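Incident review: delayed structure delivery

Summary: a single-chain prediction request sat in the queue longer than the usual turnaround. Root cause was a stuck worker, restarted by the on-call engineer. No data loss occurred. The affected request and its eventual output are reproduced below so the record is complete for anyone auditing the incident later.

Affected input:
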Amino acid sequence: MSFLDVIAALGRQWLVLVTGLLATAALAWGVTVVSPPVYTARALVVLVPSEQLVGEGGNPFLALGGLDLPARVVVAYYESDVAHDRFASGSPDAEYVVAIEESTRGPVIAIDVTDATPQATLKTLDQLTASIPVELQRLQDEVDVPKSSIMSTLVLAKDERTKTDSSDMVRLLIAAVSGGLVLTGIAAVGLDGIRRSRRARKQAPVTGPPVIGPPLIGPPVGPPVGQQVGQRVPVQTVRFPPITTPPLRNPPPDARERHPDDAPAKASTADSR
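Output delivered after worker restart:
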């Protein structure tokens, strides 16, 4: 079936086409309701070495090489269920990820928050950012770290505005619209083919079984003058005279083909004479 045939079938089945388009639009609206866009925000926090490690008049950023392991200990706490229940319980749609920023070579902790509203996203981000120095201090107090060796944190960057993430909704919307249009086209073309087949069967002439008989020789006999269309025309047949064949007669048998017992009788008759 060519593209023009499909367009013609859709035009003939316009009611199915309109119904399918309305159903597709309703499905797309349902996708936007079920999967609305989400909002994301991000913050970066770096661990600062202790005064003992930096030394008097030293640069803290030159001593970040040995702080990767303490940063991973802090990240491990935020990956636990206790931390998740603590920071994500305020919003049922809140999700966060606290991980080491792999794009940098140092103790940089990245905080990514996702929520259904911008206000809830920024609120969760502020809570997580403020809790990192508190949790780092608690971990050091539990192991009795001297005051001169205590590490601190520094906020490198934090989003003040959220970003809209519509990737999931767009994927579902594309799938719903494309699926609805394909099903509408298949339904319209299939229904059009069924109706055309039924119409063709109804319009086909009804023919009886073929009549086996002698062939008719002669010019075709048309309807007489004045015969109206649709009236039954009598069938004229041509009768042939019967063909007779003469009876078969066998010729008399040859003298040489007679019974061989007659030869001695003929010889004895000749001798007697």
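Verification: The chain has a mean pLDDT of 79.
Action items: add queue-age alerting; document worker restart procedure.
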